[in-house]
C-alpha cells in the first residue's frame, strides 16, 4: 500500500531559501521524495502541524500551498489504494496536478511580455517603469514566478505591508500597485484570467499623500531667462528647461522627438509620448521667446528640431542624455539661487501651478498640457478657440 507524507527535508545543508519541503511517497518500505519547490527554515517550520509558522517570510502563501498539497495527497491516497498504484504512479498523479497548476498563465512572464510590447511600440519610458516595478514584486516573491490567479488580494496586501514596513512611501507603493493593476487588467482583456479573480478592491492602493512643492515661480523662470555667460551643457540644459515650460510643460522625451514637420506656421502640433494612445493632439503657438531657442538650433541638418537623441531612434542614448541634462539643470539651479531642485518635471508642475493661480480654466489647462482624461467625454467636447488658447498660454509664460 502506498503512503505519503509531507516533510521538511533537513538531510542536506539548507539553500539561501531554507530547507526544501517534500512529499515522501513510500511503498514496500521503499521511499521516493517529490520536491514541491517550497522552502522554510527550521525556525519558521511547525514540525507537528507540518506547516510554516507565522514567522515565515511567506507564511500565507506557503501555508496555502502546503494545505492544498495535503488535501491532494488525501484524495490521491484513496485512488492509490483502490487502483493499487506504485509510488511512481502516485508521484505522477501528484505531479500532474501540480503541472496543471503550473501551466496556468504566469504573472511575471506576462508582465515581461508587456514590457517588450511597450518597447516595440516605442514607449520605452513606460517599459522601463514596468520593468522596475515588476523587479520589486519579483524580489518579494523570492525570484519565483506566480500564476496570475494567485496574484490575489492577500498576496498583494502582504506585499503592501512588507513595503510599508521597509519605509516605502505610500506614493511610490501606489505607483507599483497601479502598474500591477494595469498588467492584471491587460491579462483580463486577453482572457488569461477572469474578472472574478480581480484583486484590486478599494483600499488596496494607498491614497496619495501631499508631496513637497514641485514648482518654481515666474521670478525663477526670469532668472533662467536672464542667465548670461552660459555655454556647453549648462546652456543646453537651460534652453531645454525653458522650452518645456514654454510648450505647456512638455516632457523632455517629446522635446527629443520633435521634428521640423511638427513646426508649421509658427505653431507646434504633437501627441504626448507618455499617453498610450497619444491622447488628443496638442496645438501650441510658438511665441518669440521659444522661437529664439528653436532658431539657435536651426543650423543642424537633422530632421529633428533639437540635438538630443530621439527616444524613438535610440532610447538608451536618449536616457543617457536625459540624465546629463538633469544633472546640469540641478547644478544650474543651485548657481542661480533657485531654491527648488530643477528637474524635467518641475517645468510641467510650474506651468500647471502658475496657470491655476491665474485662474485658468481647468479644461483650458488640459488642452495646453495634454492631460489624459475621459476619452468618451473628450470626443464630444469642443476645443477652445485658438485665439483663446494662445491668450491663456501667453499669460502663463510671460515674465
Write the layout of secondary structure elements.
Layout: E1 3-8, E2 19-27, E3 30-40, E4 45-46, E5 51-52, H1 59-83, H2 87-102, H3 107-120, H4 124-140, H5 153-166, H6 170-189, H7 218-226, H8 232-246, H9 252-257, E6 263-264, E7 267-270, E8 282-285, H10 288-296, H11 315-335, H12 344-357, H13 362-369, H14 375-379, H15 386-397
Antiparallel strand pairs: 1-2, 2-3, 4-5, 6-7, 7-8
Helix pairs in contact: 1-2, 3-4, 3-6, 4-6, 8-11, 8-12
CATH topology of the largest domain: hpI Integrase, Chain A
Largest sheet: 3 strands, antiparallel
| Class of secondary structure makeup | mainly alpha
Q: What is the gyration radius calculated from CA atoms?
A: 29 Å
Number of helices: 15
Task: Compute the number of structural domains.
Answer: 3
Low-pLDDT stretches: 374-380
CATH architecture of the largest domain: Orthogonal Bundle
**Helix content range of the residues, please?**
40-55%
Give keywords.
three-stranded antiparallel beta sheet; single chain; 8 strands; hpI Integrase, Chain A; 51% helix; mainly alpha; 15 helices
Please describe what this structure looks like.
By secondary structure, the chain is mainly alpha-helical. It folds into 3 domains: 3-102, no CATH class; 107-197; 218-397, Intergrase catalytic core (hpI Integrase, Chain A, Orthogonal Bundle), CATH 1.10.443. It contains 15 helices and 8 strands. It has helices at residues 59-83, 87-102, 107-120, 124-140, 153-166, 170-189, 218-226, 232-246, 252-257, 288-296, 315-335, 344-357, 362-369, 375-379, 386-397, and strands at residues 3-8, 19-27, 30-40, 45-46, 51-52, 263-264, 267-270, 282-285. The strands form 3 sheets. Strands 1-2-3 form a 3-stranded antiparallel beta sheet, with helices on one face. The chain has a 3-stranded antiparallel beta sheet with strand order 6-7-8. A two-stranded antiparallel ribbon has the order 4-5. Strand 2 (19-27) and strand 3 (30-40) form a beta hairpin. Helix 4 (124-140) packs across helix 6 (170-189) and helix 8 (232-246) crosses helix 11 (315-335). The chain is elongated, with a radius of gyration of 29 Å. The chain starts with a strand and ends with a helix. The relative contact order is 0.07. Mean pLDDT is 88; it is low at 374-380.
Amino acid at each position: 500500500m502506498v503512503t505519503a507524507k509531507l516533510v521538511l527535508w533537513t538531510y542536506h545543508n539548507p539553500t539561501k531559501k531554507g530547507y526544501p519541503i517534500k512529499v515522501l511517497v513510500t511503498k514496500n518500505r521503499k521511499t521516493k521524495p517529490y520536491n514541491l519547490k517550497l522552502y522554510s527554515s527550521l525556525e519558521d517550520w511547525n514540525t507537528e502541524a507540518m506547516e510554516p509558522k507565522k514567522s515565515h517570510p511567506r507564511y500565507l502563501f506557503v501555508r496555502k500551498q502546503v494545505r492544498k498539497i495535503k488535501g491532494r495527497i488525501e484524495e490521491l491516497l484513496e485512488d492509490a489504494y483502490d487502483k493499487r498504484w506504485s509510488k511512481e504512479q502516485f508521484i505522477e498523479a501528484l505531479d500532474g496536478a501540480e503541472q496543471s497548476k503550473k501551466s496556468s498563465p504566469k504573472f511575471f512572464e506576462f508582465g515581461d511580455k508587456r514590457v517588450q510590447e511597450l518597447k516595440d511600440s516605442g514607449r520605452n519610458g513606460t517599459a522601463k517603469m514596468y520593468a522596475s516595478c515588476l523587479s520589486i514584486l519579483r524580489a518579494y516573491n523570492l525570484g519565483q514566478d506566480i500564476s496570475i490567479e494567485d496574484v490575489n488580494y492577500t498576496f498583494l496586501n502582504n506585499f503592501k505591508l512588507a513595503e510599508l514596513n521597509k519605509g516605502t512611501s505610500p506614493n511610490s507603493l501606489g505607483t507599483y500597485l497601479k502598474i500591477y493593476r494595469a498588467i492584471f487588467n491587460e491579462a483580463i482583456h486577453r482572457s488569461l484570467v477572469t474578472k472574478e479573480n480581480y484583486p484590486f478592491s478599494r483600499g488596496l492602493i494607498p491614497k496619495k499623500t501631499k508631496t513637497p512643492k514641485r514648482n518654481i515661480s515666474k521670478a525663477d523662470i526670469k532668472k533662467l531667462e536672464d542667465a548670461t555667460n552660459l555655454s556647453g551643457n549648462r546652456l543646453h540644459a537651460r534652453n531645454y528647461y525653458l522650452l518645456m515650460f514654454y510648450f505647456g510643460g512638455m516632457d523632455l522625451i517629446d522635446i527629443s522627438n520633435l521634428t521640423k514637420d511638427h513646426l508649421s506656421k509658427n505653431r507646434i502640433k504633437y501627441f504626448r509620448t507618455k499617453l498610450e494612445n497619444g491622447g488628443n493632439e496638442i496645438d501650441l503657438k510658438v511665441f518669440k521667446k521659444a522661437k529664439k531657442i528653436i532658431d539657435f538650433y536651426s543650423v543642424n541638418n537633422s530632421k529633428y528640431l533639437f540635438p538630443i537623441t530621439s527616444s524613438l531612434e535610440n532610447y538608451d542614448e536618449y536616457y543617457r542624455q536625459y540624465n546629463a541634462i538633469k544633472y546640469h539643470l540641478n547644478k544650474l539651479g543651485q548657481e542661480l539661487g533657485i531654491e527648488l531642485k530643477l528637474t524635467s518635471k518641475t517645468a510641467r508642475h510650474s506651468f500647471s501651478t502658475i496657470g491655476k493661480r491665474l485662474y485658468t480654466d481647468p479644461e483650458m489647462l488640459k488642452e495646453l498640457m495634454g492631460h489624459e482624461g475621459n476619452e468618451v467625454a473628450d470626443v464630444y467636447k469642443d476645443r477652445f478657440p485658438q485665439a483663446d488658447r494662445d491668450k491663456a498660454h501667453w499669460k502663463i509664460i510671460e515674465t
